[in-house]
Design a protein that fits this description.
six-stranded antiparallel β-sheet, 36% helix, alpha+beta
Length: 522
């Protein structure tokens, strides 16, 4: 908020239905929550978050801000590279998609399952356009009846959570054997909260609470703060090893401690303390890879992360099984906006079409239930009304109390890793923000994946091709197992950022070529 200087976080993560329990899934023979099916769906959170943000900080109506999205859904847009990459299915796969989720196939294959999508063909979502228009119409009707702007926004929310859309969601779950009820939808609400913070020199990093993984970012940066990274040389083997180890130490702590703070006592003040950062630096092994996920640290207060004391989590390696192509679909987005007055928003909305879409609405409810665990001792263990420890995490950075940067990215567990690398490129090595984003990246997989089946490959590291060519052999000699990927690979994150320009007082935007992104100013 440019007027007050305040930065706030909205908890816009969905919750588990009241009937969703570990016992329910175990009785059905599941070791993990299945990806493709109705049981992967949380209570949806995005409409609540949109209304809350508009009501608290906005000046426009829902109808005004949704108008362009409604037009795009109705008129369509060209199929782009990422859509083509994910939906370039074989005839057998398209037939399977149509059988498993006929409405999804109708929406995403343009009703023509017998042929592939083509690059540049127009992709339309008429059902989604009608849904957005109906929500805007509910708002307009409430205001025409004498209501305030807030009354109109509440009408939008009611249309979703207790009106026609709720009816359609419940009907789907009743027909498909799902768990979401009218009571679940009517009772859902997100809330405003104070963000978590850490510092790196003069910069303060603001992230969400531990219902997501955002605090990994300041934990990594504080671990690295007292190390002369610049002297090592950008993307040198020594530099990469040092940053990778800081990431893996923070990810081990994420695995041990992070969970919905309404259910789990997370020792977050300790984890974000400078004293703890010193202890994690001392756990590094110069010149030698960890080889497997390092042990979690012991916070000074010795709170162990839960209503009951957690055991040190035992994690077994899992081998990489070839995934079904539909499980590779990603649909997380990132949006950064800063206006002429200095107000800014950092937002990471996400849904996935691998579970049944709501017929007739064009709506995906996502698969975020898969980020729960069915281990009752895990901080992200499933419980009714609980939020999973989701991967989407937006971020803002201030310098001496003033907004410096708004940035974020899609791509699961890579999100904090990509943000760390861009932050250091910008502030340690003095790169322009676009160069900082373009620079080649690593991705550690030396911890369990947040999505079920929570695959864990000890010591595995992805390096983009040019990075592997420059440092791969030296890292392999340190003990890393390296799987190179192409330069600007979409799984390495897609960072977008807006940075304040100290010289001009203006703003500079950067957008990642790894996915469909752009930066624009007006």
């Amino acid at each position: 908020d440019a007027e007050t200087g305040e930065i706030r976080s909205y908890c816009g993560a969905g919750v588990a239905p009241k009937e969703a329990t570990i016992e329910f899934f175990r009785e059905k023979g599941h070791e993990n929550i299945p990806h493709m099916g109705i049981l992967a769906q949380l209570i949806p959170a995005s409409p609540d978050a949109i209304v809350a943000i508009l009501d608290t900080y906005g000046t426009m109506s829902f109808g005004e801000i949704s108008g362009e999205a409604t037009r795009l859904a109705s008129e369509g847009f060209p199929v782009h590279r990422m859509m083509l990459n994910h939906l370039d299915l074989s005839i057998i796969e398209r037939i399977g998609f149509r059988i498993l989720m006929p409405y999804n196939a109708k929406v995403y294959l343009d009703g023509k399952w017998w042929r592939t999508l083509k690059h540049g063909q127009r992709f339309r979502q008429p059902d989604l356009a009608r849904t957005l228009q109906a929500m805007a119409d509910a708002e307009a009707k409430a205001i025409e009846a004498g209501g305030t702007r807030s009354d109109g926004l509440q009408a939008v929310r009611d249309y979703f959570y207790s009106g026609p859309i709720s009816d359609a969601i419940v009907k789907l779950h009743e027909e498909e054997g799902g768990l979401i009820t009218r009571e679940d939808l009517a009772n859902y609400s997100g809330f405003w909260e104070q963000p978590l913070t850490g510092t790196y020199g003069d910069y303060t990093i603001h992230v969400n609470q531990t219902w997501n993984q955002g605090a990994v970012l300041p934990m990594v940066l504080q671990t690295l703060e007292r190390i002369d990274l610049k002297a090592m040389g950008h993307n040198s083997p020594q530099y990469l090893h040092t940053v990778i180890q800081a990431v893996e130490l923070a990810m081990a702590d994420r695995e041990q401690y992070f969970g919905d703070p309404a259910f789990v006592d997370v020792p977050i003040e300790d984890l974000l303390s400078k004293e703890y950062a010193v202890a994690r630096r001392e756990a590094m092994t110069p010149g030698t890879a960890f080889g497997k996920m390092p042990p979690a640290g012991t916070p000074p207060s010795e709170k162990a992360g839960g209503k009951e004391t957690f055991r040190q989590l035992e994690v077994s390696p899992t081998t990489g099984k070839e995934k079904h192509p539909l499980l590779e679909i990603t649909d997380t987005s990132y949006l950064a906006v800063t206006d002429r007055w200095g107000n800014s928003i950092s937002l990471t909305p996400s849904d996935f079409p691998q579970s049944p879409m709501v017929p007739g609405t064009g709506l995906c409810l996502g698969i975020r239930m898969t980020q729960f665990r069915l281990d009752p001792n895990h901080p992200a263990a499933l419980a009714p009304g609980k939020r999973p420890r989701i991967t989407p995490n937006a971020c803002m950075v201030t310098k001496n109390g003033k907004l410096f940067m708004t940035f974020g990215t899609p791509e699961g567990d890579q999100q904090p890793q990509a943000l760390v690398q861009v932050f250091l490129n910008l502030l340690v090595f003095g790169m322009d923000i676009q160069d900082a984003i373009d620079a080649p990246r690593f991705r550690s997989r030396n911890f369990p994946d947040s999505f079920s089946p929570h695959e864990y490959r000890p010591g595995l590291l992805n390096l983009e091709k040019s990075l592997y060519e420059g440092a791969g052999k030296e890292l392999e000699a340190m003990g890393y197992k390296i799987d190179p990927v192409g330069d600007w690979h979409y799984e390495m994150g897609a960072v977008c950022a807006i940075v304040g320009d100290a010289e001009s007082g203006g703003l500079i935007g950067g957008a990642d070529p790894r996915q469909e992104n752009w930066a624009a100013g007006k």
